Hints:
Elements: E1 39-44, H1 55-72, E2 76-83, H2 86-95, E3 99-108, E4 118-125, E5 132-139, E6 143-145, E7 148-150, H3 158-188
Parallel strand pairs: 1-2, 1-3
Antiparallel strand pairs: 3-4, 4-5, 6-7
Amino acid sequence: AQAQSGRRQPKVTPAAPVPTPTPEPTPAPKTEETEPELVIFVGADRDHNYGAVPWRFYDAALRGCADRLREKSGAAVEVSQNSVSRGEAIKKAKSDDKTYVILIILTFDAMARSYDDLQLHFTVFAPTTSKVVTTGVEYLNGNRAGPVIVGRTSRLPGEIYREQVIRQAGEEAADRTLKAIRKKAAESSPK
């Protein structure tokens, strides 16, 4: 525009900016945080055998029990990573009005010769009263077909296989626990 003398460009007035609509944030749908009806605390007395049973076996039992409880019920499941004595389990059950407490103990059979002779003992304590809802023993049997026990058919190394069997025993303890809790709930509900 400066190079051509005598000619001037008309001044262009800038156009008013076009307002762009700003999207209003849509409120997130409010999900009602309801507390689960069933809360289960799972712990193990890892010191029961004075350290004779490796902690990884307890971990396998706890993991099997907790996973089955989550799978088969809408329960909130809390697993203790520390050793829980029977007294602590009773205190935990008394301290809450919704929490059932499962105490798992791995012991050796009276005539045990190896880790294959472990037994999983479990006790379930009711909320508030800490009364025993059910107790049981799960034996570390390989494969079950009804009352018949079939020996080991896996090619997994012994320790891995044993942990899987302990995990299955934990799952079976969870199944028996849920059955007992549901039976207790059915008996206490008004008819």
